[in-house]
Amino acid sequence: MSAKKDFTIPPPPVVELREVSKSYHTGFLMRKKRVLKSINLSVYPGEILGFLGPNGAGKTTTMKIINNLTFPDRGQVLIFGQPSTEVSIKAKIGFLPEAPYFYNYLTGWELLEFYAQLFGIPRKKRRERIKYLLSLVKLEQAADLQMRKYSRGMLQRIGMAQALINDPELLILDEPMSSLDPVGRREFRDLILKLKEEGKTIFFSTHILPDVELICDRVAIIVDGEIIREGKIAKLIKEKIDYYEITLSGIEEKELPSSCEKVSVEEDKILVRTRGERGLNRTIDLIKEKKGKIIAITPAKKSLEDILFAELGGKKK
Amino acid sequence: MKKSLFEKTVILLIGIALFSGLQLKLDELKLKTVPKEPIYLPSGKYLRAIALGNDTLMADILYLWSIQHYSIYTIKEHRFRYLEHVYNMITDLDPHYLDPYLIGALIMAKEGGFYQMAFRLLEKGMKNNPDAWILPVDAGFYAFQDLKDYELALYYFKKAAEIKGSPPFIKRLIAGIYERKNENQTALAFWTEIYRTAKEDWVKTIAYNHIYDLKIKIDLEQLRVAIELFKDQKKRLPRSLRELIKAGFLYQLPKDPEGNNYLYNPRTGEVKSRTPFRLKR
Amino acid sequence: MKVFSIAMNTFREAIRNRVLYLLLIFALIMIGSSRILSMLTVGDESKIIKDLGLFSISLFGVLLAVFIGVGLVSQEIERRTIYNILSKPIYRHQFLFGKYLGLLLTILITIGIMAAEFLPLVYLKTGSWEFSLIWGVVLIFFEVVIITAFAILFSVFTTPILSSVFTLSIFVVGHLSRNFLILRDRVTSPIAKWLFTILYYLLPNLENLNIKTQLVHHLPIPPEFIPFAIAYSVTYAAMVLFIATLIFQRRSFV
Predict the structure, then answer these.
(1) What is the mean pLDDT of residues C80-103?
(2) Rounded CA gap, C63 and C66, in Å?
(3) Residue B123 lies in a domain
(4) CA distance C35 to chain B (A)
(5) B245/B224 Cα distance (integer angstroms)
(6) Is A219 helix (H, G, I), strand (E, B) or coil?
(7) Ordered alpha helix ranges (H), chain C
(8) Does any CB of chain A come closer than 8 Å to the CB of residue C129?
């Protein structure tokens, strides 16, 4: 019933989290709060993986664990096949933290210069690289401006520049578009797609759904420390399916069977929702029988939003 | 840079051993410094604790304060109640700072008239600074000029003279005191020594003058003693000085430094020198 | 070198700290005031200049180390700029060491400025350049080397306020080190003696770097003393930083 199986062996993941758990003690009584509950996650080379979930789900913690800024209580974290505690692998990673903050007395150029030094990039190459990056994120004008004067959006962009300074194979971005305006977000999406074309792997988290739908190859949904869904977007959406919205007229409301969910009833038309192809056919037959008129049939797929809300609804006790 | 627990512990232990060893070495080198806590009064100890290694600064501050305090001339009854205490505090904190000993003694002696207190303070200074000749000299002057206690003055000046590097004038002071006491022989011995070892001409001149005068004095004294003995025995004054020799009370007639004979008045029994004293008396 | 980059960045950050300039100005005023005070004293007028001068340099050196040092690491954590650094290929100990060196450089220059006011003042009073005083300043710097290491150590795991308190406590204890030996001699129980001996050697003895009394009174200092004192300071500071690194390795950033 589904597409033919792939026979190619998938390449080894760039990032792999196995049974990773993390909790910390909080509050006056040092109560244990479980942030990540034995999660498994993989990011494959060359893909854009969206990490989706409401605030507090554990997205930032996951990213910090990947960057070895905090340590899991249990489980393994492998990056490029090596444990995340290896310092050398960071030469291939670029990280943009959430709501980034930088040394506000430095100018944009000086900041990039400093970080470039931390990668050991030689001087001449630094100059070229910084120039290139500043034009990439459209901050050439602000290069000599102290970062205390940068707007939120500018900080986000310089953050992206510093994440790219070492031309990393893997990009980890935590809520990269949260403070950008629609134009900025558009530019950002274009940039990410461009980077993907260069062969980079991109793992970014967000709680804004349209961003994910537009550019991600795969998505992982995390709610309350658990990964509830993971996979290609198309597949995910297709999984939970399908209902049809039918706009009809010429039939009385009371004549409709209970299988038809009445969405709205107006003077001259009724909008109903039915499940599955069988429900659709039955409704069409009914309309024909009753000599009604079909005005429109709209197949509706559950969006990511729906999936999310369903899960959230389930989680709320 | 993964290190096992064992390696980390080893590094720590080596480090601790290293700086502990250096500490031992530093203790060995023992900087010449303030002597063991001479706690005369409790406050000295606490002051040192507060000072946190700045003992000499604290001494400065206290000393400054003390000068201001004691130079304000107000007739206050108990102005000097803590005088000794204050100067002990200062000198406890910084035993090598000489000024407080000197000025403290000055205030005690001149302002308060507390000479014993002044001597105590100066003695303390001498104990802590055996090379500081100024302290016994200071004490000597108080004894000599103010108290007219020549024995005490001699004691201090001699102490000062013993200190290596003390200036030559101290010996002159000593010689002068002996003259004052009329211990002429001793004075002569000192002046002779001074004359011999004098480096400058003007010192030689002074010494010579003293020796000159001393010779006259000693000679006159000798003659007087002989006359006295004669008078006791013969119940009359000798008719001339030569008679003393004949009677066996004198071996030979002394001559004054210019080679003249001494003048004798047979009626009064006085002896005088024709040659005047060089130094004003 | 990466440590050098971080050191220079720390230096640039430190010289923007207003506290630095405040402390420096106070120090310069204090050193300058010794000139005025010297007019009030009777006797050797240069003594108070030397005493107050060396004291000021020592005091403000330590205050600089404490007030700037305790915030160094905690500020990076609080502002999350540390994420940007540690996500790059740099070892945590390189980061810590870079911060330390950057701060030391700042303090070195500040002490240098203080000394540049101090020495000419002495010259004006005594008529001779007493270069031996420079050694006093050098050892003061190495005392600050130890204090700074402690400031970094505490800033790695506790808040700036607590770090200040702890570091200043270490400074006080460091100058009272001798008392452990006195206490050791006074107690009778061998365990207590043993305890005090350990405390004496384990805690930093900052008097090892204090030659102020000797300098002011022109007392002799054995020539080996200064190199050994410097070696003590360096070794001790290295151990403190080592412990700081160990703690920092395990530190996770919320």
Answers:
(1) 93
(2) 5
(3) no
(4) 13
(5) 13
(6) strand
(7) 2-14, 18-37, 45-78, 81-86, 92-126, 132-157, 160-175, 178-186, 190-202, 212-216, 225-249
(8) no
Which stretches of B30-94 are DSSP H helices? 42-51, 55-71, 83-93
At C195-238, the pLDDT tens digits run: 999 999 999 999 889 888 888 888 888 888 999 999 999 999 99
Hey, are the CB atoms on C213 and B55 less than 8 Å from each other? yes
In a domain, residue B64? The reply is yes
Residue B54 forms part of a structural domain: yes
Does C254 reach chain A within 8 Å, measured CB to CB?
A: yes
Residues in chain C: 254
CA angle B138, B144, B147 (to 5 degrees): 105
**What's the domain count of chain B?**
2
**CA torsion, points A147, A148, A152, A156, in degrees to nearest 10?**
30
Put simply, whether C249 touches A (Cβ < 8 Å) is: no
Hey, which residues does A223 pair with through a beta bridge? A226
Where are chain C's structural domains? Answer: 2-175+210-250
Partnered with residue B264 across adjacent β-strands are B271
pLDDT at B39: 27
In angstroms, the separation between the Cα of residue C221 and the nearest Cα of chain B is: 6
Residue from A66, A117, A162 whose CB has the most chain C CBs within 10 Å, to mutate: A117
Contact B29 C224 (CB under 8 A): yes
Domain extent, residue B261, equals 198-281
Is B178 part of any domain? no
Quote the pTM value.
0.72
Shortest alpha-carbon distance between residue C16 and chain B (Å): 31
The ipTM, to two decimals, is 0.86
Taking CB atoms and an 8 Å cutoff, what residues of chain C touch B32?
214, 219-220
